[in-house]
Design brief:
Blueprint lengths: L2 H7 L5 H9 L3 E3 L2 E2 L13 E3 L2 E3 L6 E6 L16 H4 L8 E2 L7 E8 L2 H8 L7 E8 L4 H9 L1 E3 L2 E3 L3 E8 L4 E8 L6 H8 L4 E9 L2 E2 L8 E3 L2 H12 L2
Parallel strand pairs: 7-13
Antiparallel strand pairs: 1-2, 1-3, 3-4, 5-7, 5-15, 6-7, 8-12, 8-13, 9-10, 11-12, 13-14
Helix pairs in contact: 1-2
EC number: 5.4.99.-
Family: Belongs to the pseudouridine synthase RsuA family.
Organism: Lactococcus termiticola
């Protein structure tokens, strides 16, 4: 495998950034500084970046239905439960693709494929993500219209989104709304609803591209199929 692809798959950096690391003399192979961008990493080669060994495992991809109250991280210095605690039987060193807030549940992908992660999380690829939000207040066409026009929140421009009102409860003054976005800024969905006067009470991600949680209970996970991975990669590359 070409050296930049090896580093990307190992989660070190994108292929382009990996080439920059090589040209900067930060990458060694078998204790020798690597300056050949076309070098093919062989079985048994010891690859290091800034003196830290890099291991490239066979890529794996998992789909998790994340519960609320779990951190989207590989570790937590406060001792809180992380998504890796839920995938204890997985031997590979996986990590989340993007993140869901501590109090947000739903679809989360975990992998050890750095190149796949970069592809999924780069804003230009515009992969649709669907969220189901229970909000305070009565959602309607008027107060949701700004979501479809694009917004600026905390100085950041938010692209237009699509919505569907799924349920309204006048007695409890709440609504359930499906919102489709393709970005992934911190607290984006919560901030969008807050901006239109509908604070989020409960939030879950139900879909990521063509990937859904069908058949997967909260807290459960499964290995993704090659077809599912290919569909996401193709969707990102065709944007």
């Amino acid at each position: 495998m070409r050296i930049n692809k090896y580093l990307a798959h190992a989660g070190v950096a994108s292929r382009r950034k990996a080439e920059e690391l090589i040209l900067a003399g930060k990458v060694t192979v078998n204790n020798a500084v690597m300056d050949n961008l076309a070098y093919q990493v062989q079985a048994g080669d010891r690859v290091e970046v800034d003196g830290v060994a890099v291991y490239n495992e066979e890529p794996v991809y998992y789909l998790l239905n994340k519960p609320r109250g779990v951190i989207s991280a590989v570790s937590d210095d406060k001792g809180r439960k992380t998504v890796l605690d839920l995938l204890g039987a997985v031997k590979e060193r996986i990590y989340p693709v993007g993140r869901l807030d501590w109090d947000t549940s739903g679809l989360l992908i975990l992998t050890n494929d750095g190149e796949f992660t970069n592809l999924m999380t780069h804003p230009r690829h515009e992969i649709d993500k669907v969220y189901i939000a229970k909000v305070e207040g009565q959602a309607n066409k008027e107060n949701l219209r700004p979501l479809t026009l694009g917004m600026t929140i905390e100085g950041k421009k938010i692209s237009p989104a699509r919505y569907e009102i799924l349920k309204q409860d006048k007695a409890k003054n709440s609504s359930v709304v499906s919102l489709t976005i393709h970005e992934g800024q911190n607290h984006q969905v919560k901030n969008m609803f807050k901006a239109v006067g509908l604070p989020v009470q409960k939030l879950s991600r139900s879909q990521y591209g063509t990937l859904t949680l069908d058949g997967l209970q909260v807290g459960q996970y499964r290995r993704m199929t090659k077809k599912e991975v290919s569909q996401l990669v193709n969707a990102a590359q065709n944007k």
